[in-house]
Amino acid sequence: MRRHAIAAVMCLAGIVWLYSDVLSSLVRQWASDDNYSHGFFIIPLALYFGWERRDQLSRAGLNPHFAGLVLISFSLAVFVAGNLAAELFLARVSIIGVVAGIILFVWGPAHLKLLAFPVAVLALMVPLPTIVFNQIAFPLQLFASRIGEMAIATAGIPVIREGNVLELPNSTLAVAEACSGIRSLVSLVTLGLVLAYFSERRPLARAVIVLSAVPIAVLANAARVAGTGFASHWFGSRAAEGFFHTFSGWLVFAVAFVGLVVVQQIVARWTGVPLQSSDVPGEQTCSPAQ
Description:
By secondary structure, this protein is mostly helical. The chain folds into two domains: 2-127, no CATH class; 131-274, no CATH class. It is 71% helix and 4% strand. It has a three-stranded antiparallel beta sheet, with helices on one face. β2 (165-168) and β3 form a beta hairpin.
């Protein structure tokens, strides 16, 4: 067990040394970009998921596999290519392959299988490439604008939409990138992942909960745009700025999370299998002595 701990510490030190610049750039982006501020929670979350499996890992036999070295080499090649091409995404995502390769090469396939989920969770900490981000954010802006226009027009308020801009009688609302909803989408998917992990044991049920976070977040953001339009029409353009705008974002996100919990409750009744403590990875129950 002591050798395992020493090997883990040495591997961790090697990763931190090699990826020091990449990790520091990640931290800076998490701190400066609200779309990825959830990144601070991902590594501790992945470590916790791994810690939960400590009993199973201690029982898993050691079987170092050469394929791990191949995976490490490939991931390092991606790392080098990302640095040479100044492509941060490649350099950042390569760390996940290095971690998986180290587990496979040092401890073996059984350990990698047990730690597959915690390692996969690390993908949530890596910001999307700008071109991919824009391909997602702009359609979300347009969708929120359309839904907002429909809701405002249904309420009898004159409104004209040009792209992502809503023209009202006394104000103009632009659904900017920050209002596209991608921030709440990523955060809600992360929360959905955690909720599904701790509340369900069936893969299909977990997938339903996580995937439901997408339409819930998108519709909640569209409702926020419509609500901002109503407030702007009734109380003036200042209602769409400052405190109200920030508060409405938190309020809508809270409502979206409640919607996610409702989905989880529906899924729990649908499966009809309550989660027991023995179902949580890494936890064991003791039966009474006979």
